[in-house]
Amino acid sequence: MFEIAERATSVENFGAFCAGVDAAPQWFALYTTPRHEKHVSEMLVQRQIETFLPLYRTPRRWKKSRPVDLELPLFPTYVFARVAREARGAVLGMPGVLSIVGSSREPWPLPDLEIEAIRSGLLERKMEPHPYLTVGERVRIKAGVMMGVEGVLVRKKNDFRVVLTLDAIMRSVAVEVDADDVEPACIATEHHIIPLVA
């Protein structure tokens, strides 16, 4: 009888612990209207909600003007906010916020470690947007002696490789590349670009 009572108490404690974890603020990615990231971030700050909008500097030049450095979002249309579960509705009601990234049932919290890594990276290194590449995706090498060659992106430990296939002899070879030296492979048509399916 004592064992059953002890288990019931531990289940209640676990439930209280889970509720406490659920109530603790977590980082979420907010999907915003294009070019409204800074405005959404300012509104979050005004409402005393912890926010993070990673920006990078890039030079731009318009016709008949001097080049200027612009600060643009590192992840266009996304702002990060640290909110508790019960405050998510208030965030969703803000102008410019379209949704919180997640499934149809619930938003997906982001690990604190990822946000801190981006913060640290912005302070210590130059960061800029890069096309999203997934392992298994068809890519093109855009720099170096193999520029223009296409293959499939793979990962071995911490290194990226592009697998090149010679169909005529049914053999493949893997070439080590920097992540910065590959881009998604596309076919350009007269009107638009169509991504290749690997």
The CA-CA distance between the termini, in Å, is 61 Å
N-to-C series of helices and strands: HEHEEEEHEHEEEEEEE
Largest sheet features: 5 strands, antiparallel
Determine the strand fraction and express it as a percent band: 25-35%
Helix percentage range: 25-40%
Gyration radius from CA atoms, angstroms: 23 Å
Shape: globular
What's the helix count?
4
Biggest sheet strand line-up = 10-9-8-7-11
Q: Show unreliable segments.
A: 1-21, 187-198
Q: What structural category arises from helix and sheet content?
A: alpha+beta
What's the total count of β strands? 13
In round numbers, the mean pLDDT is 78
Walk me through what this model shows.
- The chain is of the alpha+beta class.
- It has helices spanning 2-23, 37-46, 88-92, 112-124, and strands at residues 26-32, 50-52, 55-60, 68-73, 78-83, 97-100, 138-141, 150-156, 159-166, 171-177, 182-184, 186-188, 193-195.
- The strands form four sheets. The protein has a five-stranded antiparallel beta sheet, with no helix packed on it. It has a four-stranded antiparallel beta sheet with strand order 2-5-1-6. It has a two-stranded antiparallel sheet with strand order 3-4.
- It is globular and about 60 Å long.
- The N and C termini lie far apart (61 Å).
